Amino acid sequence: MVDMLYDRLSSLIGSGKKDDVNCIIAEYVLQNIEKMADMSIYMLAKNCGVSTATVTRFVQKCGYENYIDFKDQCYEEADTRVIAQNSHPLEEMPFRQGFDEINRNKDMDMLFAEVKKSITESSLEQAKKFAEEIHDYENVAFYGISFVQIVAEHIGNELLNLGKYCTYLTRLEDAPVQDREKSMLVIITMFGLQLPLSREFYQKAAEKYSNIWIITQNPRGKIPCKVLKFELCQHSTANYMAWMMMADEIVYLYKEHQAQLSVSENETINK
Q: Is 185 exposed, middle or buried (0-12, 13-18, 19+ CB in 10 A)?
């Protein structure tokens, strides 16, 4: 299972200086991920111009016990990239038939038709309940990687303007110590393939969060928590559109719920 290696390496690159040894190693690994399965610690150190001890500290900084575990994750990350290369087949390319108005409108109509089919009445009812529970829980954390982080950050940034602060996690063990009964975890994953969503994961999550939701287009196996689900679209562009529309809808539903509670409170005070 891919252990969010990309996010860890990206975080190191984004938080350090270009001449920092951790940035140098992280950039090299990301750019040569396909070669890592056959690369010894000595070769990686040589290629990055550092010592093997520096590589060992780098691996531990990334959260792995040893270089072997790190290499295993590199192998899985490389395998994921191979799969991802097939996620944008040219025959599904929007506007492939031309950029003129007729073909643009034709493709846009097709994409929006897929989004309309993806987001169902059931999806929106689930989103309404989800938004209300975000409001009711004191501590809310979003857990996910890659594209869905953008979705989570969009929701969180908009909710912050409404007085609701949410945290973000890429590793469950990074969850802050808090009151379990007041804490809610939101697992957000497009295809459900890159996160360790095993029974053991849910058990560990339940130790820290009394309320757990998953937002996904592709539920996998038996999910022991609440689900906000919408359908997979045929085209990746339509999938991204559906996610951002759902993210905005959650914000609107939260704001509506907040306004309704405010009206109820005022009516109670005026009685």
A: buried
CATH class for the domain made up of 105-270: alpha beta
> Are 5-84 and 105-270 in the same CATH fold?
no
Q: What is the pLDDT of residues 88-101, one digit of tens each?
A: 677 777 888 888 99
Q: What are 222-236's pLDDT values in tens digits?
A: 889 999 999 999 888
The CATH code that applies to domain 5-84 is 1.10.10.10
**Residues 159, 153: Cα–Cα separation, whole Å:** 10
Name the residue among 126, 136, 128 with its Cα closest to residue 261: 136
Task: List the domain boundaries for the chain.
Answer: 5-84, 105-270
Which CB contacts under 8 angstroms, 24+ apart, belong to 72-76? Answer: 73/2, 73/3, 73/5, 74/5, 74/29, 74/33, 74/36, 74/37, 75/36, 75/37, 76/1, 76/2, 76/3, 76/5
Predicted TM-score (pTM) of the model is: 0.71
Confidence (pLDDT) at 1: 39
